[in-house]
């Protein structure tokens, strides 16, 4: 399977402004699209607009946030909990509570076709997320920065390990999968490089651009990455490298920073930990399998398109009639020892890293190399 970049709105590439990593959808006039942290969210009951408020199915949106949902059928009350935030809502009730504080809703939750719909902006902002609405695309772009949380969770899981082959448990498999979902491009565009070796500039520049956490805007409101932010990302991921700022085929270097030449991504990668060890100096070596899902395959999954083949057919079969996300079906497969007998992975690769000092990420990388392509 070939991963590729092609011409598209470059704006949709930026993780830090709530845009999707895979943007190929043709926008219909009556369709509402939702993206959370780089991923398009699919619904069995489409979002609707009521009283100028975008309403979405609570189950799907909460699962995308990894929030817990409770339902009281007698009172028709909904509870949503994420970390230390608790939201209480009720059907047709304009009063909500967030951590015990009473707030008013412009549009209360409602039930449509057996699905509970809630105002997406209210719920997202209660969790501390940023929400942007693009009227031209009829799309809500939501960004909830959970990176420090998962970076710390990863560090805690690996703390105090020295000179051992670490058992790859189900918990570690799912934690690494979630970590690289949250840090969405930290692994899928990792260039091959050796210890202290030079990284080809084209590869490094694109990788750093995709992983820069914040953006600066110029007067034309085009999104750019300043040289300083570029340098900060290099230091965060590699601990410093020698390079000279310059344009590439994918990025133009202007006086304000790096600006994309116009392109987009059309796939999402999922990473399954295979082996993990650490030496006496605290240097970790990890081996992963990469599963690549193209955009159109993801859409086929949510449409339950029986005409498709390959990996997506297997994932559809395993999903069955369940109301379940693609991510969760893949997670179910990844914890199976025989997962490679069920799905075809794109490649196996190895990375070497140590635990980062930064609070914003878990790892500083020392080398990366592909071991085998399938």
* Low-confidence regions: 1-28
Our estimate of the beta-strand percent is 25-35%
Cα end-to-end separation: 8 Å
* Outline type: globular
Q: How would you characterize the largest beta sheet?
A: 5 strands, antiparallel
Question: What's the quaternary structure here?
Answer: single chain
Radius of gyration: 21 Å
User: What is the domain total for the residues?
Assistant: 2
**What percent of the residues sit in helical stretches (DSSP H or I)?**
10-25%
Task: Output the number of helix runs.
Answer: 9
Structure description:
With 374 residues, this protein is of the alpha+beta class. It folds into two domains: 5-143, Copper Amine Oxidase, Chain A, domain 1 (2-Layer Sandwich); 146-374, no CATH class. It is built from nine helices and 24 strands. The strands form seven sheets. Strands 6-7-8-9-10 form a five-stranded antiparallel beta sheet, covered by helices on one side. A five-stranded antiparallel beta sheet has the order 15-21-22-23-24. Helix 7 (295-303) packs parallel to helix 8. Mean pLDDT is 86; it is low at 1-28.
